[in-house]
Design a protein that fits this description.
There is one protein chain. The protein is built from 57 helices and 56 strands. Helix 11 packs parallel to helix 15 and helix 43 packs across helix 44.
């Protein structure tokens, strides 16, 4: 591997070890030879010097002088007389030169290699010789044996043992000491033409320092493949010769065969088993030779393997805790197939090709061999099986693995002829054998492991080429994940495997059989290869069957058949003959449902009865049933649940509360005094992290709505409805209903009141996915179709449960419903249905064909970052990863463990009953253990000590904890034990069996036994129901618990059945999770993790997870002293023997050790002092035959250092101390054995037992009893200082449950792959998906949830029966459903609470979206006197112009937005005493608003986009973006004195509203309708909306407001905002104001709209005249609308409760106003502003009124032709315009029957002008007094329009300017021809100077001031003399410049009545270039 050129010879160590093994076996008569793979893989670590060299590297020492010291003079031995001395020839005179021998056929002895020798006298050529390859190094310069063995290729002389001797023979003629390292320079090999050529350099000791440096790095730490530079790929063992060996049995030599030169072929694998003191994954070791061990320095004739600790050195390898001595299951890097075990698909045995000879299966095969062989198809067709075929299973899974590993990924085929080739057939067979050889006796082959072996081998043989292809294609973000990953270590996985390059010769079929036999020879009879003497697979199978029947394969697990014939393809198959393996593979061939059916069949036919009878027998102790019957007869009275071994002292200790214990639960429930202060139920609380997840869900929904895809229009929904789909489990259903009722979601949705959420109402929102779901979802689809304004959320909880395709599922199976309902077209296409999948195992839905976008995935966040609590939770989640961590932590008993004694009993019975399913056997054994444990712990069976040996320690502990827990709490709270039995029939049997035993023992009231059947409701006894009601304080007499959560603190055994858990949550009182009988056959990630997820737990945050429990923490009852020999018994002797601690570690002491040392040591070494007297256990167990010697070790994969408890104490074991077990008594253990953390008693408990341990040592027996007592009641609570009652439930909630697993699963789950991830994460995610390619990388530990999702999306594909398999064929380009979300989080973490909260906040958000802030202010300035005159009748439809002229004009301003401006004087109005002026302090406060729900006729901003609006808005990618054209429009206006050029932006779709000149397409006019035109679906008046700064927030979407009517809407915008408005409103017509108006106010916009409209009216009249029509008929009205008008209302005066308002469309309002018969007589019409109190009082009774109009105006541009808006105005322009319009005699009418609602928009608008200085753009606080200054003074100039400064100045300083006018309504300021806001304290009297104008009568009025602004010729001195002024009244004259100011004073003869001073002239604070305004003030004389 790693060659940069083809043809380089490489060496491997495999044959070398093989030969050593063979040689040793031939020489040794006394001992079994050391297996080949043990030599290869189980070497100990070689000590290293600082430079990376080994300390005893003799070759280095020998050569050390070569480079540093001068050459030593060397005298060669003189050649014998008469011999040849010619250079290039040997002493026999034969030619040795490569050039001469290149084409000759050379006879190379087996084990030798051709090497080129460099001769100093012949530099141009090489000499050819043959050297034993054991004495040559590998690519790293290591692993060469010392010494030499060579043959001369000239004369053929053999046996040269010294290189000195050999160099003389070949005439090297050296001047220095001959060294093989110096002169054996090159490998030689034959090229494709058969010519011998020079190959790669022999790497002696890694000649350059770089290689040595790499070696030292590899030794010190792990180097991943990604880190290796490409040119250093030679670190891996190369591909060495595998041919040219002679088998000891006499195989023919193969070297002479043509084209089969053996040099250079597949490297043979190497794997290491770490020494027992190694730490585990990722550790690298360099294997070497110990001192005084190994072969002699130079002699190499062979040595006995027992003489050396390690016989050969090994290259640098990564190691992992795989084991060949222990039956650990295969670890790392696996690939599960649809069923993970190798035989998971039963295939037809019919061959696919031409007929082959058939094979007869012998009769009575199963009966004779007690096994059912499994045949794996391999290469070639399998012969047809005949005869007894039912007793043989055939699987094609191995064949599929072979095929998939030969299908190269497409990426390697894009570049033409690729140098990358797949594995050869021969190599696959060899690798399969290597793998099988490595499997332990109890291990089952896993297809994923073999596939990973193939992949690793293939990758490493093509490393450089793969990198070449992958580097440019690996995205930067995925580089660390998807490039070549670090090879993981598997048992049987060849570690550094090199395959040949294209030019190298592969293993030939003729070499294969003996290579296979060599490989299998190392494992004895475990793997047998039949390949030499069989000519066909049929012959091999027949031989295998024969040997099976004859018992020759009793110790053989696998038979490999290989058929090779010249000119034919190699054929192979594997026959599994191991009992354990056959059973596991056969059961793995069933699908889970088929397996359950088989179990049911066995139970129904009664085949299990014999097993049950067998288990009932307790041997010498009698029959269990008879013992129970006798116990039932004997005990007439119930006794307390005490162990019968208790001493009188113990009973006396308990007598203080024995009376309570003897109460029945019913009596307890009726006794209110017995309460537990620590009991609390917290599952109703919403935790902070759930709130965070709910907000994440909401943000994802908003992201869908905000995207440009228009897939979800949140703005169109006014409410939320939902339906939660749960699996068909009654408990899960009720549990979801319970959460729903307590969450308050139904109240948030407004559906129900708080008190009325009944069970029935909540159940309406949850549906089980069974046949009843069809109708519920159909009705929801109908609802969604009819209620388009409701958003429906379909929550698919536990979404991984049913992912079956509807087309592949039968109706009775209940599967496929999700696909049928949720993936239907109606649901998919409904725009108001959103699907939320919720699951703990998202990878079932993350495939290449997934329907869920990766952007729509929400992953549960980690609550902790670097141990910082991010969400301030009171609890900490403890899940699968934490469980796994507890197995590695070493500080306490692992929470997850297996039960060895149970496993051994089950295994023995599996062999005894080969026809029974293993689950039946294991369940029967387990229930038997529970029954016996109940009998032993109950105290009802006489002499129950003898029962202990018939159960396991684990089971006994579980039962004892269950029985005693309730006694420790005053309220009798206890624990739950979960017993997981997937088969419903077995679970029912177990329930009956345990219930019967409980009844016979009289324990019916001590604990409940619950059968958890998913199809049935929860059933528990009435006394336990009453107990729960008391705890939960429930008064309802009919209440019963429906969920497991409500069983909190109830002592019970829950038998949970069903093929898989269906989302049932368990209470926090769960203490033991017994999974010992779950199936080990279906190794999928989902299957394993959801079973482990049952134990997931929320631990109270106060106590840390139990990785390092200190003295005050609560260990589980007796876990601290638990006998750990129940776990991992096989490892213990080996591990502890090798542990340096067991012999050299001295006990450490610490200051706290006195408390422990003072106790006699017996009490501290009893490992399992549980729930009863230890003495009786010891006495009963001492009579049993001793088992193997066992140390009390821990359940860890490796021996740990002394655990560092907080006491830091080790107890010195007393020599007489004897650790005992109820199952396995052990011999005495010598002192100073390593104590485990479990044998250390809890310091707290000890200190409680012995108050003063330093001074009062107890007698031995008493201390033992005391200690036993303290542990039998569990670790006492830290809160209690004496062993009184305390609630063990309360202690339990701070510690997760313990999990018991089958041994096989435990080994798989606790192993890690190369990335450090748990082994199970690399399994196939689910049985319904498959890997897309075998060439995938492994998951990385560093991957985030999102990266894992992308990994599965890339590397998994759904099977045809997966519901997503049809997704790719539906023809959609994006493939994702746009309204589908996926919420994933670990089991039991709180996902239900999170999504329920999400539904609540989504509903609140929709309501918030459907509501807007509307200005809701009462009209101001109404006179206290009520208006008594009624002008129009209340029901008048339109205003009568004649009546309107009789109505007085209301000068008073009533709009509340103008509550801070000057009042307009009106003769009939008298302000109220307080007035509005006193509210000066409120000016800057927020105006009053109300939240109003949007009606369906609302106007919208750019954030609204519903289906109906798409075309209207023109902003949807589905439609072509609307093109717009820019048209210039020019007209002249006298006031401006110049031509005005405006621009229209007109979308193509709106061009029909305009007329263009025919030849040039120039814009001529905007088309206007005729007065006589009328259409029910159109509006005649063009709508102009001036806007600035509100491109996003302006309400320009009038589609709904117009109710779909066609209308002409024009946005009037400033030039600098043109681009942004065009972007947001591409389908709107824009009128762009000239550049000079960029800084102008609203007056300029209205001025230009009005003048343009009149000019356009004239143009339209001309166009009509040219067309022959009447000119006067053109519609003269336009609408001026504010950009914040959101809704419109009409008054319904006929309502029974009085006048009310209801929402109407703008279309209705405008059509009503436009239909007014006399509309042309009105100059200006408008509507009132809405107020919630607008219809109260008399003032609104008049349907029409004359007065000021604001915000929404219908303007007659024809009538008002001569009255213009003041284009300079910024404020109050509408007041000014209305006053001038009225004074010109025009009718102004307000339609009071309509109102407009104005939305509060805080952004933009014409009122937001910022005063800033000229020097900087930063706004500065400039006071109003600085807005003006004296002319020609040096003043701070402001960068603000002069008119605005003037208006602001007059507003804020008028009290100083007009001192007599302040709060003086009867003496107002006279303002001629204009209205200015002089502040709220000053009243303004408006008069017009125009002749015939309408003015108020001013006769007799005295004015307090005079305001003249830009006076025209109508204002004369005579006009002013009509008015009388107070003495001292103020005059203010405003002009554009100083000269016009003086002219005005002179023309109006003002100096006659007014006094002026030079200091009274001012200008606005503008620079000269900004054209300031000037004004002069004076006083009346």
């Amino acid at each position: 591997m790693g060659n940069s050129y083809a043809g380089q010879l490489q060496a491997t160590r495999f044959e070398e070890v093989l030969h050593n093994s063979i040689e040793a076996s031939l020489r040794s008569n006394t001992i079994i030879p050391r297996p080949v793979f043990s030599q290869l893989y189980l070497e100990t670590e070689q000590p290293l010097a600082h430079d990376g060299r080994t300390e005893n590297d003799d070759e280095d020492d020998e050569e050390g002088s070569e480079s540093n010291s001068p050459p030593i003079p060397y005298q060669m031995k003189p050649p014998p007389e008469g011999c040849c001395t010619t250079d290039g020839f040997c002493q026999a005179g034969r030619d040795l030169r490569l050039s001469s021998l290149a084409s000759d056929s050379l006879d190379v002895a087996p084990g030798f290699m051709l090497v080129g020798i460099k001769s100093p006298s012949l530099p141009e050529t090489l000499l050819v010789c043959a050297v034993d390859r054991r004495f040559l190094p590998d690519e790293r310069g290591r692993n060469a044996l010392l010494g030499f063995s060579g043959n001369c290729m000239g004369c053929g002389e053999k046996g040269f043992r010294y290189f000195t001797e050999f160099s003389n023979h070949i005439n090297l003629k050296l001047s220095s000491q001959p060294k093989k390292q110096k002169h054996l320079r090159y490998h030689l090999y034959r090229n494709n033409q058969g010519v011998l050529v020079k190959g790669a350099t022999i790497s002696w000791r890694g000649h350059d320092g770089r290689m040595r440096h790499i070696g030292s790095i590899l030794t010190e730490g792990q180097v991943t493949t990604e880190e290796q530079p490409p040119n250093l790929a030679t670190q891996t063992p190369g591909s060495y010769t595998v041919g040219s060996h002679v088998d000891p049995a006499g195989l023919p030599q193969i070297a002479d065969l043509p084209q089969s030169l053996p040099n250079g072929n597949h490297a043979v694998p190497s794997i290491t088993q770490p020494p027992p003191n190694q730490s585990g994954p990722g550790r690298t070791s360099v294997i070497g030779i110990h001192a005084n061990a190994g072969p002699p320095k130079k002699r190499h004739k062979g040595w006995s393997p027992e003489s050396s600790a390690s016989s050969v050195s090994e290259s640098t390898l990564k190691t992992l805790p795989s084991s060949s001595a222990v039956s650990s299951t295969v670890t790392n890097g696996s690939r599960p197939e649809p069923a993970a075990l190798l035989g998971s698909s039963q295939c037809s045995s019919t061959p696919l090709s031409s007929p082959a000879p058939s094979v007869t299966v012998p009769n009575q095969l199963l009966h004779t061999c007690r096994l059912q062989p499994v045949i794996f198809k391999g290469h070639g067709p399998l012969p047809q099986l005949t005869g007894n075929v039912s007793e043989v299973l055939v699987s094609s899974l191995l064949q599929s693995c072979y095929l998939s590993s030969q299908a190269l990924p497409r990426v390697y085929q894009h570049y033409g002829p690729s140098p990358i080739q797949p594995l050869s057939t021969e190599m696959q067979i060899l690798l399969t054998i290597y793998y099988l050889v490595q499997l332990g006796p109890d291990q089952v082959p896993l297809i994923e492991d073999l596939e990973q072996i193939f992949m690793r081998s293939w990758r490493e043989s093509h490393l450089s080429e793969i990198r070449q292809y992958q580097q440019p294609q690996t995205p930067a973000t995925q580089g660390r994940h998807y490039a070549i990953e670090t090879p993981s270590t598997l048992p049987g996985l060849p570690q550094h495997l090199c395959l040949p390059h294209q030019s190298q010769q592969p293993v030939t079929s003729s070499q294969l059989p003996w290579l296979a036999q060599l490989a299998a020879s190392s494992c004895g009879e475990a793997v047998v290869v039949l390949g030499e003497h069989i000519r066909s697979l049929a012959q091999g199978l027949q031989q295998t069957f024969t040997k099976l029947m004859e018992g020759q394969l009793e110790n053989t697990n696998y038979v490999v058949l290989i058929v090779t014939a010249p000119g034919q393809e190699t054929q192979s198959c594997v026959v599994v003959t191991g009992k354990h393996q056959c059973r596991a593979l056969a059961e793995g061939m069933f699908s889970p449902s088929e397996g359950l059916k088989e179990i049911n069949h066995q139970l129904s036919t009664g085949v299990g009865q014999e097993l049950i009878h067998f288990c009932n027998s307790l041997g010498q102790d009698g029959d269990m049933d008879s013992i129970l019957d006798s116990a039932t007869a004997e005990s007439s009275e119930p006794s307390p649940v005490f162990s019968s071994q208790e001493s009188p002292e113990d009973r006396n200790l308990k007598s203080t509360h024995s009376s309570k214990d003897s109460q029945s639960p019913k009596e307890r429930a009726s006794s209110p005094k017995e309460t537990c202060s620590e009991y609390s139920v917290e599952w109703r609380e919403v935790r902070p992290i759930q709130l965070a997840v709910a907000r994440k869900l909401l943000s994802h929904v908003c992201a869908i709505a905000d995207s440009s895809t228009q897939n979800l229009d949140l703005g169109s929904f006014d409410r939320v409805s939902f339906l939660i789909l749960v699996p068909p489990s009654e408990v899960t259903f009720q549990q979801t209903v319970l959460h729903l009722r307590s969450s308050g979601v139904l109240q948030d949705l407004g559906n129900l009141d708080q008190e009325s959420v009944s069970q029935r109402e909540a159940e309406h929102y949850v549906v089980k996915m069974d046949q009843s779901a069809q109708a519920r979802i159909d009705s929801l689809i109908q609802e969604a179709h009819s209620n388009t304004y409701t958003l429906y959320i379909l929550v698919h909880d536990h979404a991984h449960w049913d992912i079956s395709s509807a087309s592949y599922s039968s109706s009775d199976s209940g599967l496929g419903l999700v696909d049928q309902l949720l993936n239907s077209r109606q649901v998919r296409d409904a725009p108001n249905i959103l699907i939320l999948h919720v699951t703990s195992f998202p990878f079932t839905l993350q495939t290449q064909y997934t329907r869920i976008s990766p952007y729509n995935e929400i992953h549960w966040p980690s609550a902790f970052s670097n141990d910082v609590d991010l969400y301030h939770e009171k609890t900490r989640y403890f899940g699968v990863s934490e469980l796994l961590e507890s197995t590695r932590s070493g500080s306490s008993l692992p929470l997850m463990r297996h039960d060895s004694s149970f496993e051994s009993m089950a295994s023995a019975l599996e062999e005894r009953f080969p026809k029974l399913h293993s689950v039946v056997i294991r369940t029967t054994v387990l229930i038997q253990h529970y029954c016996v444990a109940l009998m032993a712990a109950s105290g009802r069976i006489g002499g129950s000590h003898s029962l202990h040996k018939h159960t396991s320690v684990e089971t006994l502990e579980i039962v004892q904890a269950l029985l005693t827990a309730a006694q420790q709490c005053p309220a009798h709270h206890g624990h739950m034990v979960l017993l997981r039995i997937p088969s419903l029939a077995l679970a029912a049997w177990a329930h009956r069996r345990l219930s019967r035993v409980r009844r016979q023992l009289g324990l019916e009231e001590s604990f409940e036994i619950i059968l958890g059947n998913p199809n049935q409701a929860l059933i528990i006894g009435q006394i336990f129901t009453d107990q729960i009601k008391t705890w939960l304080q429930i008064q309802d007499s009919d209440w019963i618990p429906h969920t497991y959560l409500e069983l909190e603190a109830l002592p019970c055994i829950l038998i949970l059945s069903g093929a898989e858990p269906l989302g049932e949550s368990l209470p926090r009182s769960l203490k033991y999770c017994d999974l010992r009988v779950i199936s080990c056959s279906y190794l999928h990630r989902t299957t394993l993790e959801q079973e482990l997820g049952l134990a997931a737990y929320l631990v109270r945050q106060e106590s840390q997870p139990p990785h390092n429990p200190g003295p005050g923490s609560d260990l589980l009852e007796s876990d601290a002293e638990k006998l750990s020999s129940t776990d991992n018994e096989e490892e213990e002797a080996q591990e502890n023997d090798d542990s340096p601690l067991s012999s050299s570690q001295q006990p450490q002491s610490c200051p706290d050790s006195g408390a422990l040392d003072a106790l006699p040591s017996q009490s501290s070494t009893v490992p399992n002092a549980q729930k009863g007297s230890v003495d009786a256990v010891q006495s009963s167990s001492q009579s049993q035959p001793p088992f193997q010697s066992q140390l009390s070790s821990q359940s860890f994969p490796h021996p740990q250092p002394v655990p560092h408890l907080q006491t830091q104490t080790q107890v010195q074991t007393h020599p007489q101390a004897q650790p005992t077990s109820q199952l396995h008594p052990q011999p005495q253990i010598q002192s100073q054995t390593q104590p485990s953390s479990q044998t250390l008693p809890q310091p707290q408990s000890l200190s409680q037992v012995q108050p003063n341990p330093q001074t009062q040592p107890l007698p031995t027996s008493q201390s033992r009893r005391q200690h036993s007592k303290s542990t039998s009641s569990g670790s006492l609570s830290p809160r209690s200082s004496s062993p009184h009652l305390s609630c063990s439930w309360a202690r339990g909630v701070s510690r997760p449950p313990s999990v018991l697993l089958p041994r096989a699963l435990y080994d798989i789950i606790t192993a890690s792959d190369s990335s450090g991830l748990p082994r199970c994460t690399s399994f196939l995610p689910h049985m319904s998906v498959a890997w897309a390619s075998s060439f995938r990388p492994l998951l990385s530990k560093m991957m985030t949830c999102t990266e894992q999702s992308l990994y599965y999306r890339q590397w998994t594909v759904p099977h045809s029966y997966h519901m997503d398999s049809s997704n790719r064929t539906e023809g959609r380009s994006d493939n994702f459903h746009p309204r589908r979300l996926l919420l994933s989080g670990p089991p039991q973490v709180g996902k239900t609470g999170a999504y329920l909260h999400f539904l609540g906040i989504l509903s609140r958000m929709l309501i918030r979206l459907m509501e807007v802030d509307i200005y809701d202010e009462e009209d101001i300035n109404y006179s206290a006197q009520a208006e008594g005159v009624q002008y129009h009748s209340l029901n008048a439809t339109w205003p009568n112009p004649d009546i309107m002229r009789t109505m007085p004009f209301d000068y008073t301003i009533h709009d509340p937005k103008y509550d801070d401006i000057s009042a307009v004087y009106s003769p009939g109005y008298r302000p109220s005493a307080e007035g509005n002026a006193v509210r000066q302090e409120d000016v800057y406060l927020r105006r009053r608003t109300s939240r109003i729900k949007l009606s369906k006729y609302a106007a919208y901003n750019t954030y609204h986009h519903c289906e109906q609006c798409h075309q209207y808005l023109g902003f949807n990618p589905r439609y072509q973006m609307y093109e717009s054209t820019l048209h210039a429009f020019t007209f002249t206006h006298l006031l401006l004195g110049e031509e005005i050029q405006l621009y229209f932006i007109i979308p193509k779709s709106k061009e029909h509203y305009f007329s263009f000149s025919q030849p040039g397409g120039q814009l001529e006019s905007m088309r206007l309708p005729l007065i006589s035109d009328w259409s029910p679906d159109s509006i005649k008046s063009p709508i102009f909306t001036p806007t600035t700064g509100r491109h996003e927030h302006g309400l320009f979407n009038l589609y709904h407001a117009m109710d779909g009517a066609s209308h002409l809407h024009i946005l009037v915008i400033k030039e600098y905002e043109m681009a942004v408005y065009k972007k947001y409103w591409p389908n709107h017509i824009m009128l762009v104001l000239p550049t000079i108006f960029n800084g102008a106010g609203i007056g300029a916009a209205h001025f230009l709209i009005k003048e343009l409209s009149y000019h356009n009216l004239e143009l339209e009249r001309s166009r009509r005249l040219e067309g022959g029509g009447p000119a006067g008929d053109v519609w003269p009205f336009v609408i001026l609308a504010d950009d914040s008008c959101v809704m419109f209302n009409a008054v319904d005066r006929d309502a029974p409760i009085g006048p009310t308002e209801h929402a109407v469309s703008l279309k209705q309002v405008l059509q009503h106003m436009e239909a007014c018969p006399d509309l042309a007589q009105f100059g200006l019409c408008g509507i009132r502003k809405w107020s919630s109190r607008g219809l109260t009082g008399n003032r609104q009774r008049e349907p029409f009124s004359r007065g000021h109009l604001h915000d929404f105006l219908l303007l007659n541009v024809d009538q008002s032709q001569n009255i213009q808006y003041d284009q300079n105005r910024f404020t109050c322009h509408d007041v000014d315009f209305t006053l001038r319009l009225h004074s010109a005699g025009m009718l102004v009418c307000r339609f009071n029957s309509f109102s407009v609602m104005k939305k509060q928009i805080a952004i933009g608008g014409y009122r937001t002008f910022i005063i800033k200085t000229k020097m900087t753009d930063v706004p500065t606080s400039v006071g109003p007094s600085q807005y003006v200054c004296a002319p020609d003074s040096k003043h701070l100039f402001l960068a603000t329009p002069a008119q605005l400064l003037l208006e602001k100045y007059l507003h804020h300083t008028s009290q100083k300017l007009f001192p007599l006018s302040t709060k003086n309504y009867t003496h107002p300021v006279l303002s001629v021809d204009c209205y200015f806001n002089l502040g709220p304290e000053v009243t303004v009297c408006f008069v017009s100077s125009r002749p015939h104008s309408v003015n108020i009568s001013t006769t007799g009025m005295l004015f307090s001031g005079l305001l003249l602004c830009f006076t025209d010729s109508f204002v004369t001195a005579g006009f002013l003399k009509k008015f009388t002024f107070l003495k001292g009244a103020t005059l203010c004259v405003i002009s554009a410049d100083r000269s016009s100011l003086r002219q005005t004073v002179s023309r109006l003869e003002l100096e006659e009545e007014w006094r002026f001073r030079l200091s009274d002239e001012f200008q606005t604070a503008n620079a000269k270039e900004d054209r300031p305004l000037f004004f002069l003030t004076g006083k009346h004389i």
